[in-house]
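At this stage, I needed to go through a protein sequence along with its fold in token form, as given directly below:
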Amino acid sequence: MGKENQTFLPEMEPDGPQPGPSWQRKSWPLSGAGSFDDLTQALDPTGMKAALKDAAKKKGAPVDEKAIEAAASDSVRAMMLIRTYRVRGHLAADLDPLGLSHHELPKDMTPEWHGFGPGDLDRKVYIGGNLGLEWTTVRELVEILRANYCGKVGLEYMHISDVEERRFLQERMEGADKSIDFTIMGKKAILGAVIRGEQYEKFLAKKYVGTKRFGLDGGESMIPALESVIKYGGAMGVREIVYGMAHRGRLNILANVMGKPYKVIFHEFSGGSANPEDVGGSGDVKYHLGTSTDREFDGQKVHMSLVPNPSHLEAVDPVVLGKVRAQQRFHDDIGYDDKGEAKHKQVLPVLIHGDAAFAGQGIVWECLGFSGIRGYNTGGCIHFVINNQIGFTTSPQFARSSPYPSDVAKGVQAPILHVNGDDPEAVTFCCKLAIEYRQKFGRDIVIDMWCYRRFGHNEGDEPSFTQPLMYKQIRGHPGVSKLYAERLEQEGVIEPGYLKGQEDAFNHELEEEFEAGKTYKANEADWFGGRWTGLNKPADPETARRNSITGIETKLFDSLGRTLTTVPEDVKIHKTLNRVLDAKRKMFEEGEGFDWATAEALGFGSLLAEGFAVRLSGQDSGRGTFSQRHAVWVDQETEKKYIPLYTVPHGHFEVYDSPLSEYGVLGFEYGYALADPKSLVLWEAQFGDFANGAQIMIDQFIAAGEAKWLRANGLVMLLPHGYEGQGPEHSSARLERFLQLCAGDNMQVCNITVPANYYHVLRRQMHRNFRKPLIIMTPKSLLRHPMAKSSKEEFLGESHFRRIVSDTTEIPDEKVERLVLCSGKVAYDLIEARDKAGLDNTSIVRIEQLYPFPGEPLALRISRMKNLKKVVWCQEEPKNNGAWFFVESQIEQALAEAEAPVSRPRYAGREPAASPATGLASRHIAQQQALVADALGLSIEDMIAADK
């Protein structure tokens, strides 16, 4: 349904209905009437008897009630045995290449446990089509089940409630005819990939002795397995794959899966850069870097990118998912097609984890939680766990409480394939099954590859300090290529000496690339291609940041006013929202009194009308934490949702109430903005210092991503901030932390007090020809403050963002003796107190943009105050918090440039404190009065008297 005639939005997605989690089925639990392999029927003796009678009649055999009774008993017990293998067969699978974790067959997986004695093993039992058989012997049944579920692959899937998903997996795992089979060419290709993986690591170890590389040694089966994801994914409609992974095996993946030239990696090992020398940036270690490339299998080209990441394990996961979601939007790969089939087929996320990190890092669960949530669903992610059976020096029994590192994935009912890493065919089979499952059901799936880490955590460590028995076993354990080559020789696939010949040929290629790496020089950086074409890095920060005009025409302004205040006839909104809309109509009629939320909506709407997209997410973003936004109107009778801005033509608007997560959601939105610079992407904290939970994302990605990895990003963070006596956690967005991270023109930090200025900074964010993260200390009390209003003219024509805002009271410059500089809500407290006290020699100037600091306009403003005697910086935050330590030197420099008679500013604010704010209302009021009085040069008594 087109937007132009659509009043109500689909319940789940603005761009098409979404089913939510695919495990949320209205038909569950089953009624019992279904195919024979639905266990609710299969384990019912009455149903079993009926099935046996039908089978007898079809064969024309007489129906013997006693025989039917006995046969039904056998069948029920046989089905229980089958079910036990389906649930617990993985516990007896041959998974550990080292043989240190082998488990004996559990008793409940033996025929005896289910009542079959030695004399019953060759008796025919009816199993009604399970395992592809109508009748079988118990002996044959056990042989098939052990081959299916207790070989090199162990499958966990019976925790999945959806019958079709379980049946799909059973059909590919169960049966006498089920085995892992590849063609001769396929086997040779798998061996070739393993050889490249092994020899590449050995070559690096030989050429760069003692250098960290976090090698894949012991897990080389991952190379052909990931290639199969590209091959089979391409055949099933995947056109783009986005990878995220940590250190282990990264250089191998870059070279042997992503196709990054070996000579470039060798150049980086020698201390060179993959980017031209004039590009700038700090760079990063080689095992953090990403790349992008195209690979083609069977005529299908697949674009691949590996997202760069810091050392914080699993932090890249939500970034990958956000990037994938943005790419899916770009490819129209979200929602449903004309046939009603789910999309999410063209862009695939693949996350590669370490076993200890997958179990230990909470961000993994946050990302799994996205898998079925509207606005964050990516149609299933393939999780590949490199299970070294050890952390850095920590053994599994000390690293987790669950049997497997992958157990956390059961929370979203993801199937889990455990596989022996010494069997590259089995690992490749698992990846083939995984991509098929993902493309069919749009759900996450996990591959847990049991392998080992041949050396220490990095190549300089001595692992025998802490795991002597494991590493004694590893030292005598042959490599994957040798084991697999011996197997292929026995099968007659390769001749003796084939392995050595392939190794020599590949090493010769590496030697040539090594020599080429000595003279390699990068000739271009890849950060402004694709969707980023036309954008660039600002040549000069000060010139680039001079304000462009961001006002709009009256016609568009009035049109947006109608959109934001018109309630469709079939929408029954809340009575309080009616009053809010009445107040908005009055604003547009009179052209005065525009508040923060209306200014924001005008900013969003005008960008949409110009063809940009806007994506806003946060824990309560639809309504707004403070009931200020009302971007979503909920019908009070049906709970259907209507979003006014969704009806604006040309652009695309999304607003999502996110999961109760900061770390994961902020990372997701950063990844989204990374992929799509044409969308204004905003993440809103419920309260500003809730961003504490996402500090890794702020430190490692938002503040430093461009410097480290040449990856620009225009993400906007909205952080409610201001001291209203709401206690330590609801006052401060930790402004000081962001300012401490500011350097090298890396991002923007604003503390805005004027609604129109907020509108302009949002529009400026998209109208510039570069992208920088934007951190906004958004207000709480100013959302409805009578002084925090804007007029219509401030949104129109040649208006623009003001980095500094002069006084609301007209005081001649020559009369100004005291200049109070401040930022944020305290400005209005100062203005009110100053005006009540009748101070006509005190000017209050607001710094709306703290970084990049507006030194030039501030110096120009100060230069006109010829009789200046005192300059004060006033802030609400304690002295060790807030902006003071950042702005002090900046103000000094502005004073010097203005040739002012004052050389240094003085501080006025709260005393240093461990807690950001007091939780006592009376103490808060006293502190606030004191700091305002101090800034204005008044005594508390004088200020209180003036207030009366």
Q: What stands out?
A: Residues 55 and 61 are 9 Å apart (CA to CA). The radius of gyration is 33 Å. Confidence is low (pLDDT under 50) at residues 1-6, 10-42.
